[in-house]
Structure formats: C-alpha cells, structure tokens
Amino acid sequence: MKKIKLLSILMFLLLSIQANSQIDIQNFQVTSPLNQSFTWNSGQRFDYKFDIQGNYGYNEIKLKAYAESVTSNNLIGLIRWNREGDDNLSFNSYTTKSMWVSIAYNWNGRSFTTSTSKKFYLVVEYQGNSQTYLYTIPDGDNDGDGISNTQDDCPNEAGPASNNGCPLGNPNLAVDLDASQVFSQCTTCFPWLDLFFNSGKRHLIANGGVGSIGFNRLEIRNIGNATSNSAKVKFYFSLNNTIGSSDKLLKTINMPSRNVNSSYGIQTTINGWDINNNGGLANGNYFILVDIDTDNSNNEGTTGEADNLLAIPITYTEENITSIISPFPISRQKNTNTQFELTVYNSQGTLVIERKVTNKEEEKAFIQNLPKGFYIIKNGTDTYKIMKN
C-alpha cells in the first residue's frame, strides 16, 4: 500500500513539473512601424509585444524573433528574459508585455522590412519546452477606416464597409443642358435670325392663348456619388434670376429617386395664362426659375446645393402672337462686341481652364473640345453646367 501511495505522489509531482514548464502566450504582434527597413548596426530596434499568463517564478524565458523563417540566418535578435532571476514572473491573467531587440550581426549587408504580408516568428523557450508563434504584417489602411487598402475601393478616403470603403458621399441633382430641349414662341417667322441676332436670346410667352414655353424634355441628372432621394422640382415666375418671397409658384413636379449618373426627363408647358391668370402683369422681361429639390430631401453638399437653380429669361406680352414654334436652347447670354472671360470648373468647383472668347460660337466650339466629364461654365454673364459624355 505504501509503494502505491509513493508512486502516486511521484506521478503528481512529475505532472506538476510538466504543467509548470508549459508557456502560455498569445497575440504575438510586431509593433514596429509599417514598411520600416532594418539592417545591422543602424541603431534601430525591432519592437513586438504579446500577452502572457501563468506562474514562471524566477526562471528564465528565452525569446527569439525571426524574419520570414525560423533559421539562424534570419534571427533578428534574442532576449533572455529574467536571466539573472531578479523577478518573479507570475501573471494571474493575460498581461501584455512589450519587448524590443537590437538587430543581430547576421543582417550585416542584408535587410528585412515590415512591409505588407511579411511573416515574423517568435520562438519562446522555457524549461526545455519551445513554442513558435507567427505574425503576418497586415495590409495597410491609409484612411484608417478599418478596411485594408487592397479591399478598399477608396484607400485614401474613409468610408464604411457597406460602401467598399468609400465615403457615402452626396447626390447632386443638376440640369443636363445638352440633353434638354426647350421650345418657345418667336417674334418673327425666321426664328433662327432671332436666335443669332437677339443678344438677350429670351423666350417669348404671350397671353393670347398660343404663346408658351414648352419643356419638351428638361433632363435632370444625378451627377453626385450617391443615390438621391425623391425630390420636388418647382417652376416659378420671377422679376429676376433669384427666388424671392414675391415670386409666383407656377407648378410642382415630383421627381423619383435617381441612381448615380441616371437622369429624369420632365415634360411640361408654361403659357401666358399660367403667369398672368389674375391680370395686371406689364409687358417686359422676366424669368422662369426652375428650382430643383425645393424640399431639401437630398443633402447635396456645398457645390450641389448652390447650383440647383436654373434661370430661363423670358419676354412676356399680352398680345395674341401667332407664329411658328421653333426649338430654342436654354438661354445663355452672349456679347458680340468685346472679348469676355470663359472660366471652366470641375464638379468640385476647382478651376480647370480660363480662356478669352469673342462670341458665342467661339464659346460653343471651345466647350465641345473639352474631354468627358461634368463642368461648371462661367462666361461673364451666365453660369451653367454641362455633362460631356
């Protein structure tokens, strides 16, 4: 009976020794900066950390760091932790320990870097047992949004994973002038003469029943980088080219949501009776204002919100004019006498190019030669937007 009891005690002690000789480490991680290059005798230090748990008493723990593979030629450095037995290495719970080591001589004439996908190993030796831990340098995250550069469609702009790392951005609803068609009554039977020689190039609306301005297609396009919500488009009659409290609301059209770079065509007509159904309006020059997203259902950003108003100059008369209907572009003034500055901006409001032109034909020819893209054009008297496809 005594022999059996003694044997049990010896077995327990042996198991206890084996258990105490096990190392319990996790979360090994290189903490040196990303893309840092290391060589021997350069004064650099290689930093790493890990979490450790357990009671190791006053015993030594050896820590060997390697680059790329566990071979003597790739040893970065050795740490003999608690070699003198000065500390009681006891950790009741996982505790983070930060370590650093100078670069070993075997890197003389060679180098290693902490670049993306590089592998580093930590070999821990304690009480005759050895454990190896691997850490791979992860891909960088330039914008700090938690999405690695290789998985991020916008690596330099923070955005959620739901949008592939790109910012959610804003919609931007704008009139595509090149795709829009506007018709109006003209004052002569030769409307093309009026088009070229009437410097104001105003659309004529008569109150006699036949005078009107027809939007055969007013193309509103989402030129932003996010899907828009549904919006209201309102048409006003105004004394000038800005909306005021005294301006008259002519009609409201509901526009559905639009994906990026998709458009919505509005077809409607405004005649003299819409403008002067209460009488008393004097003949003269006015404006039809097209206000996009009047209820502000879309946050279009600084640039988008600022250019949601299109001003179309008109001439109103109560006369009953009967003349042919002719296609008219949305009005843009010209000056045929002197040169004027033509400035072109991109969708962010950044100046692209400046040029002096002498007439509308030169302006049109210059714009036609612009590369594909969205532009804001200022010609001295008017500001308008174009989409080059």
Defining traits:
5 helices, 3 domains, 12% helix, Immunoglobulin-like, 389 residues, elongated, 23 strands, single chain, mainly beta, five-stranded antiparallel β-sheet
Write down the overall mean pLDDT. Answer: 80
Q: Determine and state the CATH class of the largest domain.
A: Mainly Beta
The global form is: elongated
Total count of domains: 3
Please tell me about this protein's structure:
There is one protein chain. The protein has 389 residues and is mostly beta strands. The chain has three domains: 24-136, Immunoglobulin-like (Sandwich); 173-331, Immunoglobulin-like (Sandwich), CATH 2.60.40; 334-389, no CATH class. The chain has helices at residues 2-20, 191-197, 272-275, 301-306, 360-368, and strands at 24-30, 37-38, 45-57, 61-67, 75-81, 89-102, 112-113, 119-126, 129-136, 173-175, 181-185, 203-206, 212-222, 231-238, 248-255, 263-271, 284-292, 309-317, 325-328, 340-345, 351-357, 373-378, 383-388. The strands form six sheets. Strands 10, 11, 13, 16 and 19 form a five-stranded antiparallel β-sheet that branches. A five-stranded mixed β-sheet has the order 12-18-17-14-15. It starts with a helix and ends with a strand.
